[in-house]
Amino acid sequence: MSATERDAELVYAMTHLGQPPEPPEWWRGAVFYEVYLPSFNDATGDGIGDIPGIVEKLEYLHGLGVDGLWLTPPYASPHEDSGYDVSDFLTVYPPFGTVDDLRTLVEKSHALGLKVMLDFILGHTSDQHPWFVESASSRDNAKADWYVWADPAVDGGPPNNWISSFGGRAWRWEPRRAQYCYRPFLRSQPALNLSNQQVLAEMMDILRYWLDIGIDGFRIDAVQCLSFDRDLRSNPPARPAENPSVGGGPNNPFKKQMHLFDRDVPEAIPILHQIRRIADEYDPQRVLIGELADVDSSRLAPKYTVGDDRLHAVYDFDLINRSDTLLDWTNMLEVRSHYLVPGSSYNVFTNHDSERAVSNLMPRACAAGRAREAAKLLLFLQATLSGGTILFQGEELGLEQPELAPEEIRDPWAKALWPDFPGRDGVRCAMPWDSTAPHCGFTSAPRPYHKVAERHRQQAVDLQKRDPGSVLHFTCALLRWRRGVPLLRTASETILTDLPHRVIGFERKKKGDSLLCFANFGQSEVVISLPQNAMQIDFQAGAARVEGNRLTLGPLAVAALPGNGRKDPP
Q1: pTM above 0.85, yes or no
Q2: 250 part of a folded domain
Q3: Phi, psi at residue 192, to the nearest 5°?
Protein backbone atom coordinates (compact mmCIF):
# COMPACT_ATOMS: atom_id res chain seq x y z
CA MET A 1 0.00 0.00 0.00
CA SER A 2 1.46 3.34 -1.02
CA ALA A 3 1.65 6.37 1.23
CA THR A 4 -0.93 8.07 -1.03
CA GLU A 5 -3.37 5.18 -0.61
CA ARG A 6 -2.94 5.22 3.16
CA ASP A 7 -3.49 8.98 3.30
CA ALA A 8 -6.63 8.63 1.17
CA GLU A 9 -8.04 6.07 3.60
CA LEU A 10 -7.36 8.36 6.55
CA VAL A 11 -8.89 11.39 4.83
CA TYR A 12 -12.00 9.35 4.06
CA ALA A 13 -12.27 8.17 7.66
CA MET A 14 -11.70 11.58 9.23
CA THR A 15 -14.28 13.28 6.98
CA HIS A 16 -16.97 10.69 7.79
CA LEU A 17 -16.60 10.46 11.57
CA GLY A 18 -19.69 12.30 12.73
CA GLN A 19 -21.24 11.82 16.16
CA PRO A 20 -22.67 8.57 17.52
CA PRO A 21 -26.44 8.24 17.19
CA GLU A 22 -28.75 8.91 20.13
CA PRO A 23 -29.53 6.97 22.18
CA PRO A 24 -26.17 5.18 21.97
CA GLU A 25 -26.03 1.49 21.20
CA TRP A 26 -25.48 -0.77 24.21
CA TRP A 27 -21.89 -1.54 23.22
CA ARG A 28 -20.80 2.08 22.82
CA GLY A 29 -18.71 2.84 25.88
CA ALA A 30 -19.61 -0.49 27.52
CA VAL A 31 -17.49 -2.44 30.02
CA PHE A 32 -16.42 -5.96 29.03
CA TYR A 33 -14.60 -8.51 31.15
CA GLU A 34 -12.09 -10.68 29.28
CA VAL A 35 -12.17 -14.30 30.39
CA TYR A 36 -8.99 -16.15 29.47
CA LEU A 37 -10.67 -19.54 29.38
CA PRO A 38 -7.79 -21.88 30.35
CA SER A 39 -7.05 -20.06 33.61
CA PHE A 40 -10.32 -18.52 34.85
CA ASN A 41 -12.06 -21.34 36.74
CA ASP A 42 -11.92 -25.12 36.43
CA ALA A 43 -15.26 -26.76 37.27
CA THR A 44 -14.41 -30.26 35.99
CA GLY A 45 -11.19 -30.86 37.90
CA ASP A 46 -8.84 -31.52 34.98
CA GLY A 47 -6.60 -28.51 35.69
CA ILE A 48 -7.89 -26.40 32.78
CA GLY A 49 -10.44 -23.63 33.03
CA ASP A 50 -13.71 -24.33 31.26
CA ILE A 51 -17.11 -23.00 30.25
CA PRO A 52 -18.95 -24.59 33.23
CA GLY A 53 -16.39 -22.80 35.39
CA ILE A 54 -17.51 -19.46 33.95
CA VAL A 55 -21.14 -20.36 34.63
CA GLU A 56 -20.20 -20.99 38.28
CA LYS A 57 -18.81 -17.44 38.54
CA LEU A 58 -21.55 -15.53 36.69
CA GLU A 59 -22.92 -13.99 39.89
CA TYR A 60 -19.42 -12.73 40.70
CA LEU A 61 -19.06 -11.19 37.25
CA HIS A 62 -22.50 -9.66 37.40
CA GLY A 63 -21.64 -8.18 40.80
CA LEU A 64 -18.62 -6.39 39.34
CA GLY A 65 -20.94 -4.23 37.25
CA VAL A 66 -19.68 -5.18 33.79
CA ASP A 67 -21.93 -5.18 30.73
CA GLY A 68 -20.63 -8.35 29.13
CA LEU A 69 -17.99 -11.05 28.79
CA TRP A 70 -15.40 -11.66 26.11
CA LEU A 71 -14.25 -15.28 25.97
CA THR A 72 -10.92 -16.22 24.43
CA PRO A 73 -11.25 -18.88 21.69
CA PRO A 74 -13.37 -21.87 22.80
CA TYR A 75 -12.92 -23.76 19.51
CA ALA A 76 -11.25 -27.09 18.81
CA SER A 77 -7.50 -26.56 18.57
CA PRO A 78 -4.10 -28.21 19.08
CA HIS A 79 -3.44 -25.28 21.45
CA GLU A 80 0.01 -24.48 20.17
CA ASP A 81 -1.00 -20.83 20.61
CA SER A 82 -3.65 -20.98 23.34
CA GLY A 83 -6.53 -21.68 21.00
CA TYR A 84 -5.66 -19.04 18.41
CA ASP A 85 -4.72 -21.94 16.14
CA VAL A 86 -8.18 -23.30 15.30
CA SER A 87 -8.68 -26.76 13.81
CA ASP A 88 -12.51 -26.68 13.84
CA PHE A 89 -14.55 -23.50 14.28
CA LEU A 90 -17.83 -25.35 14.82
CA THR A 91 -16.90 -27.44 17.85
CA VAL A 92 -15.61 -26.65 21.33
CA TYR A 93 -12.21 -27.78 22.60
CA PRO A 94 -13.19 -30.79 24.79
CA PRO A 95 -11.41 -29.63 27.99
CA PHE A 96 -13.46 -26.41 27.76
CA GLY A 97 -16.79 -28.24 27.50
CA THR A 98 -19.35 -28.54 24.72
CA VAL A 99 -21.46 -26.37 22.45
CA ASP A 100 -24.36 -27.09 24.81
CA ASP A 101 -22.27 -25.73 27.69
CA LEU A 102 -21.78 -22.56 25.69
CA ARG A 103 -25.53 -22.35 25.07
CA THR A 104 -26.07 -22.62 28.82
CA LEU A 105 -23.56 -19.85 29.45
CA VAL A 106 -25.30 -17.57 26.95
CA GLU A 107 -28.74 -18.29 28.42
CA LYS A 108 -27.67 -17.70 32.02
CA SER A 109 -25.64 -14.63 31.13
CA HIS A 110 -28.59 -13.10 29.33
CA ALA A 111 -30.80 -13.80 32.34
CA LEU A 112 -28.43 -11.61 34.36
CA GLY A 113 -28.33 -8.90 31.71
CA LEU A 114 -24.80 -9.82 30.57
CA LYS A 115 -23.78 -10.00 26.91
CA VAL A 116 -21.43 -12.72 25.63
CA MET A 117 -18.79 -12.04 22.99
CA LEU A 118 -16.53 -14.72 21.47
CA ASP A 119 -13.02 -14.34 20.17
CA PHE A 120 -13.06 -15.02 16.42
CA ILE A 121 -9.94 -15.73 14.40
CA LEU A 122 -10.82 -14.68 10.87
CA GLY A 123 -7.38 -14.46 9.28
CA HIS A 124 -5.75 -17.85 9.90
CA THR A 125 -6.26 -21.42 11.10
CA SER A 126 -4.19 -24.22 12.56
CA ASP A 127 -2.17 -26.26 10.08
CA GLN A 128 -4.19 -29.20 11.44
CA HIS A 129 -7.42 -27.75 10.08
CA PRO A 130 -8.83 -30.04 7.34
CA TRP A 131 -8.83 -27.11 4.94
CA PHE A 132 -5.08 -26.67 5.23
CA VAL A 133 -4.35 -30.39 5.13
CA GLU A 134 -6.10 -30.51 1.76
CA SER A 135 -4.69 -27.20 0.49
CA ALA A 136 -1.11 -28.26 1.29
CA SER A 137 -1.45 -31.62 -0.43
CA SER A 138 -1.04 -30.34 -4.01
CA ARG A 139 -1.44 -27.34 -6.29
CA ASP A 140 -4.58 -28.67 -8.00
CA ASN A 141 -6.94 -29.73 -5.20
CA ALA A 142 -10.30 -28.10 -4.48
CA LYS A 143 -8.84 -25.94 -1.72
CA ALA A 144 -5.50 -25.18 -3.36
CA ASP A 145 -6.16 -21.43 -3.20
CA TRP A 146 -7.70 -21.30 0.29
CA TYR A 147 -4.42 -20.20 1.89
CA VAL A 148 -1.69 -17.76 0.82
CA TRP A 149 0.84 -19.61 -1.33
CA ALA A 150 3.78 -18.18 -3.28
CA ASP A 151 6.57 -19.51 -5.45
CA PRO A 152 10.17 -19.15 -4.22
CA ALA A 153 12.27 -16.15 -5.09
CA VAL A 154 14.93 -16.50 -7.78
CA ASP A 155 17.45 -17.68 -5.20
CA GLY A 156 15.05 -20.32 -3.87
CA GLY A 157 14.28 -18.42 -0.67
CA PRO A 158 11.00 -16.89 0.50
CA PRO A 159 9.20 -14.59 -1.94
CA ASN A 160 9.89 -11.47 0.16
CA ASN A 161 11.31 -10.25 3.47
CA TRP A 162 8.15 -10.36 5.60
CA ILE A 163 8.74 -11.30 9.24
CA SER A 164 6.41 -13.05 11.67
CA SER A 165 5.23 -11.11 14.72
CA PHE A 166 6.80 -13.92 16.75
CA GLY A 167 10.17 -13.59 15.00
CA GLY A 168 11.63 -15.34 11.96
CA ARG A 169 10.53 -15.38 8.33
CA ALA A 170 6.77 -15.24 7.80
CA TRP A 171 6.92 -18.08 5.29
CA ARG A 172 7.04 -21.88 5.65
CA TRP A 173 8.16 -24.24 2.94
CA GLU A 174 5.78 -26.97 1.77
CA PRO A 175 7.64 -29.62 -0.30
CA ARG A 176 4.47 -31.20 -1.68
CA ARG A 177 3.61 -27.97 -3.44
CA ALA A 178 7.18 -26.68 -3.86
CA GLN A 179 5.85 -23.37 -2.56
CA TYR A 180 5.95 -21.17 0.48
CA CYS A 181 2.91 -20.57 2.68
CA TYR A 182 2.42 -17.25 4.46
CA ARG A 183 2.09 -17.43 8.24
CA PRO A 184 2.08 -14.06 10.06
CA PHE A 185 2.40 -15.67 13.51
CA LEU A 186 3.47 -19.25 14.34
CA ARG A 187 4.61 -21.70 11.70
CA SER A 188 1.48 -23.71 12.55
CA GLN A 189 -0.87 -20.76 11.82
CA PRO A 190 -1.17 -20.42 8.02
CA ALA A 191 -3.00 -17.34 6.72
CA LEU A 192 -6.36 -17.82 5.03
CA ASN A 193 -6.79 -16.31 1.58
CA LEU A 194 -9.88 -14.22 2.33
CA SER A 195 -9.82 -12.75 -1.17
CA ASN A 196 -11.08 -16.17 -2.27
CA GLN A 197 -14.86 -15.74 -2.07
CA GLN A 198 -15.37 -19.42 -1.21
CA VAL A 199 -13.16 -19.02 1.85
CA LEU A 200 -14.88 -15.83 2.91
CA ALA A 201 -18.31 -17.43 2.45
CA GLU A 202 -17.28 -20.35 4.68
CA MET A 203 -16.10 -17.96 7.39
CA MET A 204 -19.36 -16.02 7.17
CA ASP A 205 -21.32 -19.26 7.62
CA ILE A 206 -19.29 -19.93 10.77
CA LEU A 207 -20.25 -16.51 12.11
CA ARG A 208 -23.90 -17.31 11.39
CA TYR A 209 -23.60 -20.59 13.31
CA TRP A 210 -22.54 -18.81 16.50
CA LEU A 211 -24.97 -15.95 16.02
CA ASP A 212 -27.76 -18.54 15.78
CA ILE A 213 -26.69 -19.85 19.19
CA GLY A 214 -27.18 -16.36 20.62
CA ILE A 215 -23.69 -14.90 20.77
CA ASP A 216 -23.94 -11.11 21.05
CA GLY A 217 -20.82 -10.32 19.09
CA PHE A 218 -17.22 -11.07 18.29
CA ARG A 219 -13.79 -9.75 19.13
CA ILE A 220 -12.09 -10.10 15.74
CA ASP A 221 -8.48 -11.16 16.20
CA ALA A 222 -5.68 -9.23 14.49
CA VAL A 223 -7.76 -7.22 12.00
CA GLN A 224 -4.57 -5.66 10.61
CA CYS A 225 -3.72 -9.10 9.18
CA LEU A 226 -6.92 -9.85 7.25
CA SER A 227 -5.25 -9.14 3.92
CA PHE A 228 -1.86 -8.49 2.32
CA ASP A 229 -0.21 -6.84 -0.65
CA ARG A 230 -1.15 -8.82 -3.76
CA ASP A 231 2.24 -8.15 -5.34
CA LEU A 232 4.03 -9.47 -2.22
CA ARG A 233 6.33 -6.46 -2.11
CA SER A 234 9.04 -6.47 0.54
CA ASN A 235 8.76 -4.11 3.50
CA PRO A 236 11.24 -1.22 3.83
CA PRO A 237 13.45 -0.97 6.93
CA ALA A 238 12.09 0.92 9.94
CA ARG A 239 13.66 4.01 11.41
CA PRO A 240 14.65 4.00 15.10
CA ALA A 241 11.76 4.29 17.60
CA GLU A 242 9.13 3.22 15.08
CA ASN A 243 6.70 0.32 15.71
CA PRO A 244 6.19 1.14 19.41
CA SER A 245 3.08 -1.04 19.63
CA VAL A 246 4.89 -4.21 18.62
CA GLY A 247 5.47 -6.68 21.45
CA GLY A 248 8.12 -9.33 21.89
CA GLY A 249 10.84 -7.26 23.51
CA PRO A 250 13.12 -4.52 22.15
CA ASN A 251 15.06 -6.88 19.87
CA ASN A 252 12.12 -8.54 18.16
CA PRO A 253 13.16 -8.51 14.47
CA PHE A 254 9.56 -7.64 13.55
CA LYS A 255 10.33 -4.10 14.78
CA LYS A 256 13.06 -3.68 12.17
CA GLN A 257 10.61 -3.19 9.29
CA MET A 258 7.90 -0.72 8.32
CA HIS A 259 4.99 -3.07 7.75
CA LEU A 260 3.52 -1.41 4.68
CA PHE A 261 2.69 -4.55 2.74
CA ASP A 262 1.90 -7.29 5.28
CA ARG A 263 -0.29 -5.24 7.66
CA ASP A 264 -3.20 -2.80 7.31
CA VAL A 265 -3.69 -2.94 3.53
CA PRO A 266 -6.77 -1.54 1.68
CA GLU A 267 -7.97 -5.00 0.61
CA ALA A 268 -9.10 -5.62 4.21
CA ILE A 269 -11.95 -3.11 3.99
CA PRO A 270 -14.26 -5.19 1.72
CA ILE A 271 -13.80 -8.07 4.16
CA LEU A 272 -15.03 -5.84 6.97
CA HIS A 273 -18.04 -4.91 4.85
CA GLN A 274 -18.92 -8.59 4.59
CA ILE A 275 -18.72 -9.41 8.28
CA ARG A 276 -20.66 -6.27 9.21
CA ARG A 277 -23.39 -7.23 6.76
CA ILE A 278 -23.70 -10.64 8.43
CA ALA A 279 -23.90 -9.11 11.92
CA ASP A 280 -26.52 -6.59 10.83
CA GLU A 281 -28.60 -9.31 9.15
CA TYR A 282 -29.15 -10.84 12.56
CA ASP A 283 -29.58 -7.74 14.68
CA PRO A 284 -28.07 -4.24 14.54
CA GLN A 285 -27.21 -4.74 18.21
CA ARG A 286 -24.75 -7.57 17.48
CA VAL A 287 -21.28 -6.10 17.86
CA LEU A 288 -17.93 -6.52 16.08
CA ILE A 289 -14.86 -5.29 17.97
CA GLY A 290 -11.51 -5.52 16.23
CA GLU A 291 -8.10 -6.06 17.77
CA LEU A 292 -5.73 -3.60 16.11
CA ALA A 293 -2.06 -4.27 16.79
CA ASP A 294 1.38 -4.06 15.15
CA VAL A 295 0.46 -0.67 13.62
CA ASP A 296 -0.04 3.01 14.51
CA SER A 297 -3.35 2.08 16.11
CA SER A 298 -4.87 5.35 17.31
CA ARG A 299 -4.26 7.10 14.01
CA LEU A 300 -5.59 4.22 11.94
CA ALA A 301 -8.56 3.23 14.13
CA PRO A 302 -11.11 5.50 12.37
CA LYS A 303 -10.52 3.66 9.09
CA TYR A 304 -11.78 0.46 10.69
CA THR A 305 -14.84 1.94 12.42
CA VAL A 306 -16.06 4.80 10.22
CA GLY A 307 -19.64 4.70 8.98
CA ASP A 308 -22.04 1.80 9.42
CA ASP A 309 -20.42 -0.85 7.23
CA ARG A 310 -17.17 -1.69 9.03
CA LEU A 311 -16.39 -2.65 12.62
CA HIS A 312 -18.39 -1.17 15.46
CA ALA A 313 -15.29 -0.51 17.56
CA VAL A 314 -11.62 -1.38 17.99
CA TYR A 315 -9.18 -1.82 20.79
CA ASP A 316 -5.45 -1.51 20.54
CA PHE A 317 -2.21 -1.67 22.53
CA ASP A 318 -1.50 2.06 22.72
CA LEU A 319 -2.48 2.25 26.39
CA ILE A 320 -0.67 -0.97 27.24
CA ASN A 321 2.57 0.19 25.65
CA ARG A 322 3.02 3.28 27.82
CA SER A 323 5.71 3.98 30.35
CA ASP A 324 4.93 5.86 33.54
CA THR A 325 6.54 8.92 31.96
CA LEU A 326 3.80 11.54 32.00
CA LEU A 327 4.95 13.18 28.77
CA ASP A 328 4.55 9.82 27.05
CA TRP A 329 1.04 9.40 28.48
CA THR A 330 -0.05 12.93 27.67
CA ASN A 331 1.21 12.85 24.08
CA MET A 332 -0.49 9.52 23.44
CA LEU A 333 -3.80 10.65 25.00
CA GLU A 334 -3.81 13.81 22.88
CA VAL A 335 -3.40 11.70 19.73
CA ARG A 336 -6.24 9.40 20.79
CA SER A 337 -8.53 12.33 21.60
CA HIS A 338 -7.96 13.73 18.13
CA TYR A 339 -8.62 10.56 16.14
CA LEU A 340 -11.05 8.35 18.03
CA VAL A 341 -14.82 8.69 17.80
CA PRO A 342 -16.29 8.72 21.34
CA GLY A 343 -17.50 5.25 22.20
CA SER A 344 -15.94 3.50 19.19
CA SER A 345 -12.79 2.38 20.97
CA TYR A 346 -12.02 0.39 24.10
CA ASN A 347 -9.48 1.19 26.77
CA VAL A 348 -7.31 -1.84 27.44
CA PHE A 349 -4.48 -1.69 29.99
CA THR A 350 -3.87 -5.46 30.13
CA ASN A 351 -4.91 -8.49 28.14
CA HIS A 352 -3.73 -12.05 27.65
CA ASP A 353 -0.83 -10.85 25.46
CA SER A 354 0.69 -8.30 27.86
CA GLU A 355 1.99 -7.88 31.40
CA ARG A 356 -0.25 -7.04 34.33
CA ALA A 357 -1.12 -3.34 34.15
CA VAL A 358 0.12 -2.22 37.54
CA SER A 359 3.54 -3.85 37.05
CA ASN A 360 3.86 -2.73 33.45
CA LEU A 361 2.61 0.86 33.72
CA MET A 362 3.51 1.81 37.28
CA PRO A 363 6.66 -0.08 38.28
CA ARG A 364 7.93 2.72 40.53
CA ALA A 365 4.76 2.66 42.62
CA CYS A 366 4.99 -1.13 42.91
CA ALA A 367 8.62 -0.89 43.98
CA ALA A 368 7.55 1.55 46.70
CA GLY A 369 4.99 -0.93 48.01
CA ARG A 370 2.01 1.06 46.69
CA ALA A 371 0.65 -1.38 44.12
CA ARG A 372 -2.87 -1.24 45.57
CA GLU A 373 -3.15 2.54 45.15
CA ALA A 374 -1.56 2.34 41.70
CA ALA A 375 -4.04 -0.32 40.60
CA LYS A 376 -6.95 1.89 41.66
CA LEU A 377 -5.49 4.84 39.75
CA LEU A 378 -5.21 2.81 36.56
CA LEU A 379 -8.71 1.39 36.91
CA PHE A 380 -10.05 4.93 37.33
CA LEU A 381 -8.30 6.08 34.16
CA GLN A 382 -9.51 3.04 32.24
CA ALA A 383 -13.11 3.75 33.26
CA THR A 384 -13.08 7.51 32.63
CA LEU A 385 -11.00 8.01 29.48
CA SER A 386 -12.93 8.26 26.23
CA GLY A 387 -14.15 4.86 25.09
CA GLY A 388 -15.38 1.64 26.59
CA THR A 389 -13.42 -0.59 28.92
CA ILE A 390 -12.16 -4.16 28.68
CA LEU A 391 -10.99 -5.55 32.02
CA PHE A 392 -8.75 -8.58 31.86
CA GLN A 393 -9.50 -11.19 34.51
CA GLY A 394 -7.77 -10.40 37.79
CA GLU A 395 -7.33 -6.69 37.10
CA GLU A 396 -10.25 -6.08 39.46
CA LEU A 397 -7.96 -7.56 42.13
CA GLY A 398 -4.96 -5.40 41.26
CA LEU A 399 -2.79 -8.45 40.56
CA GLU A 400 0.90 -7.81 39.92
CA GLN A 401 2.97 -9.59 37.29
CA PRO A 402 4.53 -12.79 38.69
CA GLU A 403 7.99 -13.95 37.73
CA LEU A 404 8.21 -17.46 36.31
CA ALA A 405 11.13 -19.81 36.10
CA PRO A 406 12.36 -20.71 32.60
CA GLU A 407 11.01 -24.25 32.95
CA GLU A 408 7.52 -22.83 33.56
CA ILE A 409 7.41 -21.05 30.20
CA ARG A 410 4.85 -22.50 27.76
CA ASP A 411 4.36 -19.51 25.47
CA PRO A 412 5.82 -20.18 21.99
CA TRP A 413 6.44 -16.46 21.51
CA ALA A 414 8.63 -16.41 24.63
CA LYS A 415 10.44 -19.56 23.58
CA ALA A 416 11.26 -17.93 20.25
CA LEU A 417 12.62 -14.71 21.78
CA TRP A 418 13.86 -15.82 25.24
CA PRO A 419 15.42 -14.25 27.30
CA ASP A 420 14.77 -10.88 25.64
CA PHE A 421 11.02 -11.43 25.98
CA PRO A 422 9.62 -13.14 29.11
CA GLY A 423 6.41 -14.06 27.34
CA ARG A 424 2.75 -14.12 28.21
CA ASP A 425 2.60 -16.94 30.76
CA GLY A 426 2.77 -14.59 33.76
CA VAL A 427 -0.42 -12.70 32.94
CA ARG A 428 -2.13 -16.03 32.19
CA CYS A 429 -1.57 -17.51 35.66
CA ALA A 430 -4.78 -18.93 37.11
CA MET A 431 -7.27 -16.74 39.00
CA PRO A 432 -6.91 -16.76 42.80
CA TRP A 433 -10.39 -17.40 44.20
CA ASP A 434 -9.78 -18.82 47.68
CA SER A 435 -6.69 -17.96 49.71
CA THR A 436 -7.00 -21.10 51.87
CA ALA A 437 -7.50 -23.69 49.13
CA PRO A 438 -4.93 -25.58 47.05
CA HIS A 439 -4.22 -23.66 43.87
CA CYS A 440 -6.29 -20.83 45.39
CA GLY A 441 -9.50 -22.63 44.50
CA PHE A 442 -8.91 -22.49 40.74
CA THR A 443 -8.94 -26.29 40.38
CA SER A 444 -9.12 -29.51 42.37
CA ALA A 445 -6.55 -31.12 40.06
CA PRO A 446 -3.10 -31.88 41.50
CA ARG A 447 -1.35 -29.80 38.81
CA PRO A 448 -3.17 -27.05 36.88
CA TYR A 449 -2.13 -26.37 33.30
CA HIS A 450 -1.62 -22.70 34.21
CA LYS A 451 -0.09 -22.33 37.67
CA VAL A 452 -1.46 -20.07 40.38
CA ALA A 453 1.13 -17.48 41.39
CA GLU A 454 1.80 -17.74 45.10
CA ARG A 455 2.24 -13.97 45.32
CA HIS A 456 -1.44 -13.72 44.32
CA ARG A 457 -2.69 -15.78 47.27
CA GLN A 458 -2.93 -12.70 49.50
CA GLN A 459 -4.93 -10.94 46.78
CA ALA A 460 -7.50 -13.73 46.38
CA VAL A 461 -11.16 -12.92 45.88
CA ASP A 462 -12.25 -14.24 49.30
CA LEU A 463 -9.85 -11.91 51.14
CA GLN A 464 -10.72 -8.87 49.04
CA LYS A 465 -14.45 -9.40 49.53
CA ARG A 466 -13.90 -8.96 53.28
CA ASP A 467 -11.70 -5.87 52.90
CA PRO A 468 -13.64 -2.64 52.17
CA GLY A 469 -10.39 -0.96 51.09
CA SER A 470 -9.52 -3.64 48.55
CA VAL A 471 -9.10 -3.15 44.83
CA LEU A 472 -12.09 -5.46 44.29
CA HIS A 473 -14.39 -3.24 46.37
CA PHE A 474 -13.02 -0.20 44.57
CA THR A 475 -13.71 -1.76 41.16
CA CYS A 476 -17.33 -2.50 42.07
CA ALA A 477 -17.82 1.05 43.39
CA LEU A 478 -16.12 2.56 40.32
CA LEU A 479 -18.27 0.69 37.82
CA ARG A 480 -21.44 1.39 39.82
CA TRP A 481 -20.60 5.11 39.79
CA ARG A 482 -19.75 4.96 36.08
CA ARG A 483 -23.22 3.62 35.28
CA GLY A 484 -24.68 6.74 36.88
CA VAL A 485 -22.65 9.07 34.65
CA PRO A 486 -23.90 8.36 31.11
CA LEU A 487 -21.66 10.97 29.49
CA LEU A 488 -18.69 8.67 30.22
CA ARG A 489 -19.93 6.36 27.47
CA THR A 490 -19.88 8.81 24.57
CA ALA A 491 -18.71 12.28 25.63
CA SER A 492 -15.84 14.01 23.88
CA GLU A 493 -12.48 14.25 25.63
CA THR A 494 -10.03 17.12 26.00
CA ILE A 495 -6.63 16.59 27.60
CA LEU A 496 -5.87 19.36 30.09
CA THR A 497 -2.54 21.16 30.15
CA ASP A 498 -0.66 23.35 32.66
CA LEU A 499 -1.07 20.78 35.41
CA PRO A 500 1.42 19.93 38.16
CA HIS A 501 4.22 17.52 37.36
CA ARG A 502 3.04 13.86 37.18
CA VAL A 503 -0.66 14.74 36.99
CA ILE A 504 -2.93 13.71 34.12
CA GLY A 505 -6.18 15.60 33.70
CA PHE A 506 -8.93 15.59 31.10
CA GLU A 507 -12.46 16.85 30.59
CA ARG A 508 -15.32 14.74 29.27
CA LYS A 509 -18.02 16.97 27.82
CA LYS A 510 -21.39 16.47 26.16
CA LYS A 511 -24.45 18.69 25.68
CA GLY A 512 -23.60 21.16 28.41
CA ASP A 513 -22.57 18.54 30.95
CA SER A 514 -18.95 17.89 31.75
CA LEU A 515 -16.73 15.93 34.08
CA LEU A 516 -13.19 16.84 35.12
CA CYS A 517 -10.91 13.89 35.90
CA PHE A 518 -7.49 14.04 37.53
CA ALA A 519 -4.92 11.38 38.44
CA ASN A 520 -1.74 12.01 40.43
CA PHE A 521 0.93 9.57 39.25
CA GLY A 522 3.39 10.99 41.74
CA GLN A 523 4.12 10.03 45.32
CA SER A 524 3.84 13.57 46.67
CA GLU A 525 0.80 15.75 47.32
CA VAL A 526 -0.16 18.18 44.53
CA VAL A 527 -2.50 21.16 44.24
CA ILE A 528 -4.55 21.76 41.08
CA SER A 529 -6.34 25.00 40.18
CA LEU A 530 -10.00 24.45 39.28
CA PRO A 531 -12.00 26.61 36.85
CA GLN A 532 -14.45 27.70 39.58
CA ASN A 533 -15.10 27.66 43.31
CA ALA A 534 -17.36 25.30 45.25
CA MET A 535 -16.85 22.28 43.00
CA GLN A 536 -17.66 19.00 44.70
CA ILE A 537 -15.78 15.73 44.30
CA ASP A 538 -18.11 13.18 42.72
CA PHE A 539 -15.75 10.20 42.90
CA GLN A 540 -12.29 9.68 44.35
CA ALA A 541 -9.65 7.22 45.46
CA GLY A 542 -6.99 8.22 47.94
CA ALA A 543 -6.70 11.59 49.64
CA ALA A 544 -8.56 14.29 47.73
CA ARG A 545 -10.19 17.53 48.91
CA VAL A 546 -11.47 20.80 47.47
CA GLU A 547 -10.93 24.18 49.09
CA GLY A 548 -12.22 27.12 47.09
CA ASN A 549 -10.88 26.63 43.58
CA ARG A 550 -8.05 24.31 44.64
CA LEU A 551 -8.10 20.54 44.42
CA THR A 552 -5.50 18.77 46.56
CA LEU A 553 -4.58 15.23 45.54
CA GLY A 554 -2.51 12.95 47.69
CA PRO A 555 0.01 10.45 46.30
CA LEU A 556 -1.52 8.21 43.62
CA ALA A 557 -4.93 9.76 44.28
CA VAL A 558 -7.66 10.36 41.70
CA ALA A 559 -10.76 12.53 41.60
CA ALA A 560 -13.67 13.30 39.31
CA LEU A 561 -15.63 16.54 39.60
CA PRO A 562 -18.66 17.70 37.57
CA GLY A 563 -17.20 20.57 35.59
CA ASN A 564 -20.44 22.54 35.44
CA GLY A 565 -21.44 21.97 39.05
CA ARG A 566 -23.97 19.25 38.33
CA LYS A 567 -23.91 15.59 37.49
CA ASP A 568 -25.17 14.14 34.22
CA PRO A 569 -28.64 12.82 35.16
CA PRO A 570 -28.90 9.02 35.55
Answers
A1: yes
A2: yes
A3: -70, 145
